[in-house]
Specification:
about 350 residues, about 55% strand, beta-fructofuranosidase activity, mainly beta, Tachylectin-2, Chain A, Glyco_hydro_32_N, EC 3.2.1.26
Length: about 350
């Protein structure tokens, strides 16, 4: 049986978890919801698990927030989504999956951030305006007086992010394709859209991608279009997927799923999957940096200096698996955050990061 636990990464007490959902700072606490199968250590009918923290490091697992208990959720459950606060209430937006309608978008509302009531008018978006079956993972943000929702979509030929707008969070109007391309075919998953400094960032994950699976499109948002953008991949590890961000005390904080779709839990395992260490995002000369939040930096206290010379390489491994090899000319600093089952490496203050789940763990 699997007994080894993380020291400072959240993982469920039992069952399978994948994408972080609904990240939000609400009434003085950090809330992290997540895709969850409480019945086994593998993917299944999706619920929304729930964890709460006061410091981003120590998490308490709460009761399940969303159960797949409606007819419009009978063929997959409650897929990924996001959280927004409005008038003191927490709104959870998620993809509801049914046999009759396929992937649609729904919402649940809470007065306390713990107990949620699904909106009687669900699904609030019943059809992909482009007609594709893949239509999931709504992320809602407010820009000015308007709420915007980005949703992942695609087919075998093309992947795209769709943009919707609303004034009340319940009635949504389709605007446009915000971003897309044939190189993202099948489906763009878990999109996120937010302002960072003087730029707007569209972040998303590419299904079936092993490395560089998370993309950051950094540019300007003009008349519902992303323009003058660059595409970046600051995280290149194998075991980091479907990150989501939220804003708290002026910081843009990102948390990803540590694991990957090709990984199978050890025989007899009671749980699988975890959340990455929370990371603060910043911009430096137009380039995305991701680095552990200040609450986690004591976990990386310097224990030694290691000098390498020009032309050398730095080879990081645990005896079973090579995590990373980098040429010395590219390195100014290396910070390593190691837990019982994972390694997160940050180069040059977060200009590049690599996340790995230790082999055999």
């Amino acid at each position: 049986m699997q007994t080894e636990r993380f020291r400072y990464h959240f993982e469920p007490k039992r069952g399978w978890m994948n994408d972080p959902n609904g990240l939000i700072f609400y009434k003085g606490e950090y809330h992290a919801f997540f895709q969850y199968n409480p019945h086994a250590a593998h993917w299944g009918q999706m619920h929304w698990g729930h964890a709460v923290s006061r410091d981003l490091i120590h998490w308490e697992e709460y009761p399940i927030a969303l159960y797949p208990d409606e007819p419009y959720e009978d063929a997959g459950g409650c897929f990924s989504g996001s959280a927004v606060e409005k008038d003191g209430k927490m709104y959870l937006f998620y993809t509801s999956v049914s046999k009759e309608y396929g992937q649609t978008q729904s919402v649940a509302i809470s007065e306390d951030g713990v107990n949620f009531v699904k909106y009687k008018g669900n699904p609030i978006i019943r059809k992909n305006p482009l007609g594709h079956d893949n239509f999931r993972d709504p992320k809602v943000t407010k820009i000015g007086d308007t709420y915007y929702m980005v949703v992942g979509s695609g087919d075998r030929e093309w992947g795209q992010v769709l943009l919707f707008s609303s004034s009340d969070l319940l009635h949504w109007e389709y605007e446009t394709v915000l971003f897309g391309g044939k190189e993202y075919a099948d489906c763009i998953e878990c999109p996120d859209f937010f302002r960072l400094g003087d730029k707007y960032v569209l972040m998303f994950s590419k299904i079936k991608e092993k490395f560089k699976a998370t993309y950051f499109v950094v540019g300007d948002f003009v008349e519902n279009k992303l323009v003058n953008y660059t595409i970046q991949n600051p995280e290149r590890g194998y075991d980091f997927y479907a990150p989501q961000t939220f804003e708290a005390d002026g910081r843009r904080i990102m948390i990803g799923w540590m694991y990957h779709w090709g990984k199978v839990a050890r025989p007899g395992a009671a749980f699988a999957g975890a959340l990455s260490i929370p990371r603060e995002l910043s911009l430096e000369n137009g380039r995305i940096l991701n680095y552990p939040v200040r609450e986690a930096q004591h976990l990386m206290d310097k224990c030694s200096d290691y000098v390498i010379w020009k032309g050398d390489t730095l080879d990081l491994r645990d005896g079973l698996r090579r995590w990373l090899t980098v040429r010395s000319k590219d390195i100014r600093s290396v910070d390593i955050l190691e837990d019982t089952k994972s390694v997160e490496v940050f180069l040059n203050g977060g200009k590049q990061s690599y996340t790995y789940w230790k082999r055999g763990k």
